[in-house]
Amino acid sequence: QVQLVESGGGLVQPGGSLRLSCVASGSIFAVLTMGWYRQAPGKQRELVADITRGGFTNYADSVKGRFSIFRDNAKNTVYLQMNSLKPEDTAVYFCNFRLVTNNYWGQGTQVTVSS
Fold first, then answer.
1. Nearest partner of 74 among 23, 114, 18, 40, judged by Cα
2. pLDDT tens sequence across 22-58
3. SS (H, E, C) 29-53
4. Backbone angles phi, psi at 75, to 5 degrees
5. pLDDT at res. 28
6. pLDDT averaged over every residue in the chain
7. 69: Cα within 13 Å, side-chain hemisphere
8. Beta strands in 41-88 (DSSP E)
9. 21, HSE (Cβ side, Cα atoms, 13 Å)
10. Measured distance CA(36)–CA(20) in Å, rounded
11. Residue 93 phi/psi, 5° resolution?
């Protein structure tokens, strides 16, 4: 059974940085797209960034220039480097692995940006 495990969330001051990691446990092959989504209280889950197997990236306008997504296919791991964090980045962040026939989600990790 495949599980995605996120780590790296926490409390950070505005302007600070965090790096999120998400690793898949179990047998998983040929992940097409790896992505990060977030959900703030009272809001819908939204795409933050995703990256294809070939390395093409896509970012939400609100995080462009501040966040970077990258992946290690051999390790089935995806990272989200978050710089210049703002209070409005506060949310639960979820990783997502999309395959041809399956779609997996992590349990979420809390990111709180506050002074």
1. 23
2. 999 887 778 889 999 999 999 999 999 999 999 999 9
3. CCCCEEEEEEECCCCCCEEEEEEEC
4. -100, 0
5. 79
6. 95
7. 27
8. 46-52, 57-59, 67-72, 77-82
9. 9
10. 9
11. -105, 130
